[in-house]
Please model this.
Amino acid sequence: MTNTKSLDTPLKIAIPNKGRMSEKIYSLLSNAGLNFPSKDERTLQVSTKDGKHKLIFVRTADIPRFLEAGVADIGFTGFDIITELKADIEKIMDLDFGNCDMVVAVKEEDPYNSTKDLPQNINVATSFPNIAKEYLEKAGKSPKIIEVTGATEITPRLGLSDVVVDITSSGSTLKSNKLKIIDKILSSSAVVVARKGLNAELQKKVETLLVALKSVLEAREKKYLMANVPKEKLDDIRKFLPGFTAPTVMSMMGDDKNVVIHVVVDSDKVFDSVEKLKSLGGQGILIMTVDQMVR
Model:
């Protein structure tokens, strides 16, 4: 007898094949509950043990094209990449890492302090030819675009370009090459993108995954705090420990004077919270990380 049971279609996820962004995304997905086997630099794709999700490792800049071609369903890349490629895909979530700016920079000794100060005809080295050309032409310039794939910041000193359009997170690499920033074109960070036309089954999987990712990202800003406190101090404690909703209070066996509180607090408020709890007689204070927090 033929088995007519339909197979579960895996959600195909494209992520960068190397670099810090790749490591962060792989960790984020793992913390969100996707159980992938271990990988190495030569791994091209892996699937979860239940077969519901598949990871595809490709160059960051190629991810939008993989989505457009239907090879992957969602992907993790940079906002700068999808802007440069003008890819026909949907941005569905911003992430809290991979932050950088795309800037216009010139040699420190050049007399230019903004894009409008630049000469009419300029040689521009960049890995983002479309963005650079559009931005400079809107500023009334006639740029000659010199596309490079790396070490953009060295090109003015070598005489290859007058101007660079590049991404930077701190500006230190530009400064070390004696360049100065004269304008910012856009801000970028890691984003989650999806191909258009996902069927209902895959769309549901995407929505479920986004909820899990958001819960992980939100949990990173929180800590789980437990403490034994005097029952008579609960009203005072509630004033500075509202937590996720309100502290959970549990009785202690054989102790009518003290209770145990459980509460989620912002990471940057843990130190002050602990000090206040101690001043109110709190003891046995435990601070734990939060893996996910689903509202």
